[in-house]
Structures are given as C-alpha cells and as structure tokens.
Write a structure and sequence with these properties.
globular, alpha+beta, two-stranded antiparallel sheet, two-stranded antiparallel ribbon
Length: 71
C-alpha cells in the first residue's frame, strides 16, 4: 500500500549503502539495491523492516534465501 511504501522509503532511503528501492505493490515485494561494492546483510534488512512493523516472509540475497521462522 502507499503508506507501506512511505514507511519503507523513510527507513531505507537515508541508509548510506542503499542505492535504490523498488516496489511492486501488486506482488507485495520490495527490492533494495545496494550501492556499488556495498553488501546488504539480510539480518539487518529484516530487523529494519520489523522496526517499521513489517514482517518479511522471505529475503533473497546473493548469500541465499531466508524465510520467516515458523510461528
């Protein structure tokens, strides 16, 4: 939703290692693109999303795919 996009943009936009944030509202996905030579840690991305009240179902990175723990 639009409010979710604003929250994500506010959280990730100022981060020095983030080059771009892409959204697909219909697919309910967010792609965080790192700056050249930067590496995004899946654990930090998950923690940042949880801080704004979002629980990611899946994080995909060059290091692998991380899914939410069963509740």
């Amino acid at each position: 939703c639009g409010a979710c996009v604003k929250k994500i943009e506010a959280k990730f936009g100022p981060m020095p290692y983030v080059a771009q944030i892409r959204y697909d509202i219909d697919a309910r996905t967010v792609t965080v693109v790192p700056k050249p030579k930067a590496k995004l840690a899946p654990q930090r991305l998950k923690a940042a999303l949880e801080q704004i009240g979002k629980t990611p179902e899946k994080l995909v990175s060059p290091d692998g795919t991380f899914t939410a723990k069963p509740g």
